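step: validate -> pass
step: tokenize input -> pass
step: predict -> running
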Amino acid sequence: MKITATIAAIAIAAGTMASAETRLKLGHPFDPADPVQTAAETFARVAAEESDGEIDVSVFPSAQLGKTKEMQEGVQQGFVDIVLESVGTLSGFHPVAGVESMPYLFRDGDHYLRVWNGEVGQEVKDMLAKDANFRIFGHLYRGSRELTSNREVNSIDDLSGLKIRVTPIKERLVTWETFGASPTPMSFSELFTALQQGVIDAQENPIATIHKSSFDEVQEYLVLTSHMANGFTFQMNAEKFDGYSPEVQTALIAAADAAAEEYNTYVSENQAKLLAELKERGMIIVEIDREPFRAKAKDVVAQFPAVEDWYLRMSEVK
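step: predict -> pass
step: emit ->
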């Protein structure tokens, strides 16, 4: 009887230990060659180190877990644990998240990080956790988004009729419509083929993504519009995150911060180098007068009343 009881106790303990391991699936839509994959791998490694092996993160690039919105819906429903994407892509779940997609809001990378790591950014993040059930942590600054095109663009007037791929969220669609282009919502995983086949004429992304995705192979011009500064965050189900032990929460936040620091350093140190390499590969770099774009930005913001006050508060952050 004693032996049987001992065996039962061991079995129960073993079962408890096995269930204590936190296995997480992290998805993002970008190619494994993109720096965001390195950030995801750093997150997985540091999470394991900080939790003494309790946290096991599996990374799924290239939209293997679905397109961005599908993955985010999966986070809400519990079958995807983490999505690595921008705050702005959450606007379909809460309108205030769309503030990140407003053109010419952030002055540069330092301003972007001061906003999201500061008081006003935390207010927005707390709102998204409370009202939309998304816990956001870790801010990876991607750099400003630039336009690439197979048609020469020297002014805002040259955008008329330009078929440009945009992330399938309303704020970015409205931005390019207001600028005068003809935007086409499309997932990132479909983008290279669409450019290659001439389905669209242009796209917009940070320089690091343009470089790593080899868009120079299917685009002739790189137009430095710098129309939007955005980044990535680690997005989780807020209720699920709050249910983890303090140790697991601390490890996840530490992992996100480590990935962000590494990624932000990479972007800061390599922007000029990557731009020079794109020029060497044959892209024509176009400097453009941004003031007409900035003037139109006000018209974009006016179409999203839910973000106007947040836009003003963020823009005033020193």
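step: describe -> Residues 75 and 114 are 27 Å apart (CA to CA).
step: cleanup -> pass
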